[in-house]
Design goal:
25% of the residues lie in helices and 29% in strands. The longest helix has 19 residues. It folds into 3 domains: 121 residues, Rossmann fold; 144 residues, D-amino Acid Aminotransferase, Chain A, domain 1, CATH 3.30.470.20; 71 residues, no CATH class. The protein has 365 residues and is of the alpha+beta class.
Amino acid sequence: MKQKVLVGLLCNNLNPANYYNVDQHLAIDIIKFRPDGIDWSEKKIRGIILENGRWKWAVTCFPDAVYNRCYTSSMATTKGLEKVIGQGKVFNGFTQFNKYTVFSILKPSKLGHLMIPTHLYNTKTLLNMLSEGPVLIKPAWGTMGHDVYRFTLEDNEYKVYSETLSPMITFKTADELVSYIDNEIKPKNYIIQPFITFASAAGHVFDMRQLVQKNQYGVWDVTAGLSRLCFTNCFVTNTAYDVRPINKVLDNTEFKPSITDEMRQISIQVAELLENNLCPLGEISVDFGITSNGRLWIIEINGRPQKHLFNRIDNGIFKQAVIVPLRYAAHLGGNYPSFQRATYRISTRAHYSLKPKLLGKQLRN
């Protein structure tokens, strides 16, 4: 009988996730755990384990491979795990990418022409760029599309936009604008970019996302793609009114379907470059925009892609997006360290360090 690989899902919560029960033939066990469920001295993991389609409390040995699902910019926990289970056995060491750091990595590469010019926010840069056209500012760290602002200088008036193309406030002077930004937006750790008007389909601005994952052979590939369409009069696609297959969106435009092949190749190159410069990775997503003249731009790169969006297109695609990282984890954990092959045991609630009421509530959901 084939020995199973113990795959760890390092997460921010212990909510049972039934969508991981998607491939009964994959020779793995899954332990979902939080950073505070790691017993470093005893080399044990406390969390919930998927057994016969149900999640149960468990105490296990350290996993053979770990798939980091925490949304964090720190590598403290993942580096600690790697010291125990082996170098390269933890992927997506951190998942909250800094947009300016990503720009700095990709700009000098052969993909540099696809990168939207990006600067750390400061008042001088803002005013200089506004004299040339509309400007966008947003947090350098991901906020799911929140706190994104557009600014224009039109007819000697400074206008501020949030999500929609209708100004929410207007100022007569640059000093008033700067004072508003400093006091209301508080742009510490923000970046600034020229605002690019992307193409629309039936009046809805859209972007195109490529989900890039390592497969069971440890090779980067694009698992799936989708397009998010803005609400009418909006410019932020994160709050999408609809999610569709890319080809269905492109059918309503003048762009050639072959653009998807180009995005696919670019996305794989992005993944390779970021992994070489950031940390071991197993999946990212790359968001593209396209202008009316057919020019592609990389809008953003996500270190923890939201897979539930693919469920809005096709449940089969969603399942594939979920299973591919597990297969990669099984590939990483294929060399079994002898000390880890101890049989796991199912724990009782008393064995766990968190509050019993909280745990019971989570398991009932």
